[in-house]
Amino acid sequence: MNTPGKRTPAGEREWTFNNNVFSAAIRYLGGYENANVVRLDDPTGNTDVPLSTRTNKANNADILVSYHHNANTGQCGSWTGTDTYHYPGSSSGNALARKIHPSIVTAMGLRDRGIKSANFHMLRGSRMPAILIEGDFMDSTIDIDKMRNNTVMDHTGKALADAIASHFGLKKKDSEGSGQEYVEIVTDFLWKYNTANWNDRAVIINRGEVFTVSRDKFPVGGGHMYQIKSGLYITANSQYVRYYTK
């Protein structure tokens, strides 16, 4: 989150936008059978994980998707659009890009800047088909409105998840009668926590986001928390979250 340069002209962090999209993608992939996600960055945003560590961790996976938001000059301008990259000469990377890129373009509703090749580490250092997506430009007067719209970010995450599922031919889970428990954020924003400790804040989440609860609520320092499926924690206060099952 705090790596210099990875922010909008207004100071918003690229990691936050990346996280909004990919957290949604992980959530929607959870609705498919046999979908297992390995997240390669620090899910709290506190540290910048070295690229070699990321690709080493990824190299037992079937595909690698590196999701970013672009920048041009660092000053606001009218450039716009979505790019997807694969490693030069990688036919499998190109095939993956062709499967996923159109869905991201449609979800973002911006200019299609095309599928390209580049010698990026995340593409070069991976053993599996790999793509790197630049969803839009952080320093664009056009694109920033999309990035600040949580609904657009959520839809983009869903588009990414659905495209990945389509690529592998995954089936949706039959949730009827499963009794799965969820919480939905019903306030403007609140914190997720690394541990069951109100002082151990991890990352801000926003109204409308939904999380799978992996255990019953339990008392913490005068209040209650849920542990969510990712392993992080969230308040159980009904003023801020709505609990439901389906």
* Strand order in the sheet with the most strands: 7-6-11-10-9
Q: Specify the biggest β-sheet.
A: 5 strands, antiparallel
The count of strands amounts to: 12
Q: What fraction of residues sit in β-strands? A: 15-25%
Portion in helices: 25-40%
Uncertain parts: none
Mean pLDDT score, rounded?
Answer: 91
> What structural class is derived from the secondary structure elements?
alpha+beta
Q: Count every helix, treating DSSP H or I runs of 4 or more residues as helices.
A: 6
The coarse silhouette is globular
The H/E string reads HHEEHEHEHHEEEEEEEE
Distance between the termini: 35 Å
Computed over alpha carbons, the radius of gyration is 18 Å
Highlighted features:
246 residues, alpha+beta, 5-stranded antiparallel sheet, 4-stranded mixed sheet, 12 strands, 28% helix, 25% strand
Q: How does this structure look, described?
A:
This protein has six helices and twelve strands. With 246 residues, it is of the alpha+beta class. Strands 7-6-11-10-9 form a five-stranded antiparallel sheet, with no helix packed on it. A hairpin with a 7-residue loop joins strand 6 and strand 7 (201-206). Helix 1 (14-29) crosses helix 6 (150-168) and helix 3 runs antiparallel to helix 6 (150-168). The chain is globular. The model has no long low-confidence stretch (mean pLDDT 91).
